Known about the structure:
Structural class: alpha+beta
Order of helices and strands: HEEEEHEHEHEEH
Number of helices: 5
Number of domains: 1
Strand order of the largest sheet: 1-8-7-4-5-6-2-3
Strand content: 25-35%
Helix content: 25-40%
Distance between the termini: 48 Å
CATH superfamily: Glutaredoxin
Radius of gyration: 16 Å
CATH architecture: 3-Layer(aba) Sandwich
Amino acid sequence: MKKIVLTLMFILGLYGNAIAGEKGVNIYEVPRALPKHEIIHNDLKHYSLTDFKDKFILVMFWSRNCSPCIKELESINNMAKQVESNGIKVVLISSSREWGSMEEQKKFLTKYGAPDIDFYTDENSRLAAKFGIFTSPHTVLINKKSEEIGRIRGAADWDDEKVIEYIYKLKAQHG
């Protein structure tokens, strides 16, 4: 019984609110180069993460089969609208294998409170694999020089004032 309780506590710790107390946050001492791979925008154009140079980017890997991912969609949408005029871009990426079409994904996002956000697909999860990401939700933080500065593992209340303040702090410190 004790073993089961400890296991459950460990699992809850992994998937709890990522930013509360900066839990689940890993900021690197030295920025890392980005893997090269294109993602497909909801307008069917192909982009690379380096195409967003001169913006601080939150690359959010998510899955339609991940309940914490779905739960945070509305707060991601709200946060993205709040920060876009301040040089912060939210890039919402899911695997192409999860969708029959971009229209299907758009309907899903609208249903779960994220009708305004741009979204992208990752062909066969290749970009996620190049980042070494195999769980959702997972956020990669990229500075204006197109370098990875850290990651946030797990879900968050993205439109919470303290979370947005923390993102602004990261942007100020790491570009």
